[in-house]
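Model: You mentioned two targets. I'll fold them one after the other.
Researcher: Yes, keep them separate.
Model: Target one:
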Amino acid sequence: MLKKFIPKHSGIHRFATLALYRALLRQCRTLPKNVTVSGTVKQLIPMRFHRYKRLDSPSQIANAMKAGYEALDLLHSVSRGSKRDARRISKLINESESRKQRSSEMQRQMTEAKLAIPKTASQIRREEAIRFQESTAKTHPDATPILSRPRPVVSGKRRVPVFVNARGIPMLRIKKPQPRILSGIIRSKLTRRERWVNRENALAVDILFTKDEDNWDKLTVSQDPVPWTKEVWEALQQTKRTIKNNDIKNSEMAKAMWNVVLRERELAAKEEAAAKGGLPANDESVASGETSKENLTAKEDLAAAKESQNAVPRQPELQTKENFTGKEELVAKEESPAKDPTVENDFAAGEKMVAAEEPQAKKDSKTKEDLAAAEDLWNVILRQQELEVQHDPTTKAEKERLSHGK
């Protein structure tokens, strides 16, 4: 596979372009003083060469070199006093300036049109996230340590923090999104621990090589009193202690943060209970979890008032036959003196007989209704059969034959 040709790395190409560049700059010095565009031409030459120095296409490079040599011939002609070529240079520069102005004006209009387009919800959220990350890049001057919580008094509803474990790094999330400085702290701690772990692994491998060196020294009867393994072993133990101490520190911090969460939950529950009871959040009775007798009385009165408002009005009792009979019996029992037990037994026996006859009467009436319905159904069936016989031609012929036979 052929190697790609990069013109700017080629010495031949660089020699040709630098020669053209120097020739153009030298020719600008020889322009007559009455030519007003001499300074502009001297500024345009470095700008054009800087723009086209990364060209890789052979055709584009050839066109650019051709334009450069034509410009060199034109400048040489102007330096010799050609007014026509001087006007041509002025015209080319003016066209270039006007083209540049039109391009900048078009770019400005496009920018204004883009700003006039209403932003979508995702764009607004993205811009807000960028502004938030920029504003939280440094620690706020009024920030308090996280372990100083819970705050005794807060404005509004108390926000209970959430305990989060970020790959072994404990933290308390108050709200989202996460501040940029907190993300940086977590990232730096994780990077530092990863560096310690990598060092521990590397030292564990180095110990194997140091053991080989010590074995070689034993074989060669070396007089070195300090073994090779000593320094590496001490470094490995120091790294392990560092990792262990860091983990212990994170564990203690996690316990302290969890205690903060528990205390915040306690205060939030008390404040919520106080808000429901219509009491201030910092009331001593609420803080101690006790309620006075006046508060209980007020709560009972409030509950009774709500029940009276929500209660459905009681409908007047209908004077049914059973109710009326029951009331009469109650009045009769209250007014009448004690009755003879024999009479009462006879009365009870009579009621039982009446109660036994009522189901039998109901059964008899139901049987009569069933018989009447069956009779009606039978009559309908007979009527239908008679109609079929009347409309059947075979039956008519049979009747005529029988009548003639008679």
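Model: Target two:
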Amino acid sequence: MYRSTTRPILAAERALLDARVRHPIPKVSWASTAAWVALWSVGGVACMATLGRIDSGELGGVLAWSVRALLVIPALTCLFAVTALIASHISWARRYRQYRQEFLPCCAALLAGAQVEAKTVTATAVCAIAELTDEGNGYLFDIGGGELLFLAGERYRPIDDTMPWPSTEFDIVRAAADGSWIGVFSRGDVLEPSHTVALAECPEALLWAEEEERIEGAIEVGRVRFGGAAAVAAAQA
């Protein structure tokens, strides 16, 4: 089932939003990130410099080739660590910026009595999307009536980590006034994915979906049956 309603914010939702305001997302510092990047970079440069000396013939013999083999792994580890640190910083900085610029102002209005638009979802089955498991949530929920609900992105997870996810029942909540994102409030039971499907097996419309999307189809034993390649309704409509 999928139902959209406009209503006042619920007491449980109000309490969770108030807790998010009182315990904000930590702000990441470029100074701290730069220090760790510099540390790993020094290690990587040292490994590469030693490898360069071996290649130039300054260091030779069987021992040198053994050292070369041992240095390749830490050099690659340093490179991976630097890349991961920068990517993590960018991700957390974006989340903090969204929290300050979008979430907090919207919360203030809601806690003052503004209305919310809640999309209530009741699902009987769910499957995971293989290519999206490392990029946040990527799921297809069977919502009955020959329809599936596609959810993808970091925002599609419960506002409270103690909530079950994926689950049999949840609300996707936005501010009614301007559609600002609030969060996912899960209150159902844990719904374990029945299996994993490749994004390439899904309708082409889902390849470019940025938010939730309703499409024709159903989850069957061991597979997903799609009723058509085109989305039948954008969930935000």
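Researcher: Noted. Anything on target two?
Model: The beta strands are 2-8, 115-122, 125-129, 137-144, 147-153, 169-175, 181-186, 196-197, 213-220, 223-234.
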